[in-house]
Amino acid sequence: NFSSSSIMCICIGIVENLAMKHVNLNENPIGIAGARAILQLSMVVGSRVTVGAANCNTIVMDERCWYDPDQPCKEYTLDLSKPFDRAVAFLLMQTIANHSTYVFEGVTYEESPGRQ
Description:
Structural class: mainly alpha
Largest sheet: 2 strands, parallel
Mean pLDDT: 91
Radius of gyration: 15 Å
Low-confidence stretches: none
Number of helices: 3
C-alpha cells in the first residue's frame, strides 16, 4: 500500500521520469496530502502521463506525513537528500507558483558537509 508520504515521493519521480506513460495508484490509502500531490502532478505533467487513482482512501492519516497541504505557510527545515523532504520542497514551490498571495519569506540552501 502507498501512503501519503509514499505518494508524494512517487509524484516527484513521475515528474522527473520523462519515459513514464502510465501509473496505477488505485486502491491505496493516499490520504489528503497524497490526493493533493496527485492533483498538483497533473498540472505539471499534463497529458504526458496517465495516473489512475480510483477507489483511494483519502481519509486515512499517515503518521510519517507531517506536511499539511491545507496549512503550507510555516517555517520548514528540509533535508533535500531525503525523498520526502524533496517532495515537500517541490509541492511548496508548486503551491506558491499557483497562489497569488503566497511568497517565500526567505530561502537558505546549505550544502551538506562532504559534498562538493
